[in-house]
Amino acid sequence: RMVMGDLLRFVCIYLVFVMGFSQAYYIIFLSFDNPNTPEGVDDSVSNPMPSPMESIMAMFLMSLTSFSDYYGAFDRTDHEIEAKLLFVIYMIIVAILLVNMLI
């Protein structure tokens, strides 16, 4: 019973961070430009975060598994520095949350 309460509290806090950062990344990736896409063709097909729901899933996957695909795509946005800074902050917060879940 106590474990379920702790787990529920962790999930709520984790979801707040995932939702917040995912929406920030969705806005950052609105300016995504794939150099391999011909001019005049929509980049949303190759955009890693083309919709708010996709960005939520991407942030969840980024915190648990590989993030290299997303990190490499930061260079193709107008907000490369902000994206990398947000990434570092997000990874630190998620690491702290995951360690606290173990305690």
UniProtKB/TrEMBL annotation:
It is a multi-pass membrane protein. This is Nanchung. Residues 2-103 form the Ion transport domain. One of its GO terms (biological process) is calcium ion import across plasma membrane. GO terms for cellular component: plasma membrane. It holds the Pfam family Ion_trans. It comes from Cydia pomonella (Codling moth). GO terms for molecular function: calcium channel activity. It is found in: Membrane. Keywords: Membrane, Repeat, Transmembrane, Transmembrane helix. The chain crosses the membrane at residues 7-28, 56-73, 85-102.
